[in-house]
Amino acid sequence: MRSVIITRPGDPSVLEIAERPKPQPGPHQVVIRTAAATVNPTDVLLREQGGGELPPPWTPGTEVAGTVEAVGEGADFQPGERVFAAVYPRRPEGGAQAELVLAPAASVVRTPDGVPDVEAATIPMNGLTVLQALRRLNLPPGATLGVIGSAGAVGQYAVQLGVHAGLRVLADAKPGEEELVRGFGAHEVIPRSDNPGAAFRAVVPDGVDGLIDAAVLDAAALAPIRDGGALATLRFWTGPTERGIRIEPILVLDDMERTESLQELADHLRTGRLTTRIADTYPVDRVQEAHRRLAAGGVRGRLVLVF
Ligand SMILES: NC(=O)c1ccc[n+]([C@@H]2O[C@H](COP(=O)([O-])OP(=O)(O)OC[C@H]3O[C@@H](n4cnc5c(N)ncnc54)[C@H](OP(=O)(O)O)[C@@H]3O)[C@@H](O)[C@H]2O)c1
């Protein structure tokens, strides 16, 4: 089966297409025939840094949508069912950018009727990330949630799921993107600024109760938060903190087999509470182009590889 592979860290030219052994499902595993797999910032990291202890070749990709190809013992799926799944790529079986993807059944849910595969593929990894962030921020309904990097995938889902959780959501936007962010349901749109503390506090002088930092500002994301509030960070930043602010480093890997969260995302997708944005689709053979485009920045919506 055809797969994207990386045999050494480097620029997008290290991405190749190769034949790899067909995966066989073990107990409680599913093999998915891929229709669509997204390209995310984490795939750029895997390409640039390599897979660490894991010997190459590495296959990137954390999100897949397609149809069930084969089912292991105890996995409650039927061949041919449409599904989407979150996948951890730093494992011997590789990630989602392959014609056939092995996944734990717990990481797989059925795709709602009428939702195309390219759209379903954009949901699981970043959706799980936001559900984990909201759970760990643990804000009561009516509390204020700040979102930085709101026009990105994590940011969009943070706004949409924060609103659904009954929070008052304040989301940043750069000039020209205010309507986009307001369209996600943000109650207040905050001008994107080098001084996010001043920008958010112009609306909530005491600071927000919690904040999801999808722009990876880390220490600079503390300023908009009230004393004793909480910050969800997305690239392992743990502090130092200030003013009693609790820092919650988010790790989606911890939730990749959290079926109830994936099911919740499928329900939000079905009802339209979560919406998807596709920047572009690329046949998998053009994976290098997709990486170049993502690395250049400013992409709005997800880039999706189709198989
Ligand atoms: N820890 C985990 O488990 C986990 C899981 C999922 C994602 N992540 C990480 O979360 C981050 C966000 O992912 P994503 O897919 O949402 O990325 P994305 O789609 O590229 O979105 C990032 C957003 O942040 C904006 N931004 C960049 N610099 C900014 C600044 N100084 N101030 C305000 N906004 C700024 C970007 O705008 P411009 O394009 O205009 O710069 C973009 O809208 C990535 O670093 C990703 O690796 C971590």
What are the salient characteristics of this protein?
single chain; 307 residues; alpha/beta; Quinone Oxidoreductase, Chain A, domain 1; Rossmann fold; 2 domains; seven-stranded mixed β-sheet; six-stranded parallel β-sheet; 8 helices; globular; binds NADP nicotinamide-adenine-dinucleotide phosphate
- Mean pLDDT score: 98
Write the element-wise H/E pattern from the N-terminal end onward. Answer: EEEHEEEEHHEHEHEHEEEHEHE
Please give the oligomerization state of what you see.
single chain
Write the CATH fold name of the largest domain.
Answer: Quinone Oxidoreductase, Chain A, domain 1
Kindly provide the name of the CATH class of the largest domain.
Answer: Alpha Beta
CATH superfamily of the largest domain: Medium-chain alcohol dehydrogenases, catalytic domain
Query: Could you say which structural class the secondary elements and strand pairing correspond to?
Result: alpha/beta
Q: How many strands, what sense, and barrel or not for the largest sheet? A: 7 strands, mixed
Count the E strands: 15
Which stretches are poorly predicted, pLDDT < 50 over at least 5 residues? Answer: none
Tell me the distance between the termini.
11 Å
Name the overall outline. globular
**DSSP strand content:** 25-35%
The tally of domains stands at 2
- Rg to the nearest angstrom? 19 Å
Helix content: 10-25%
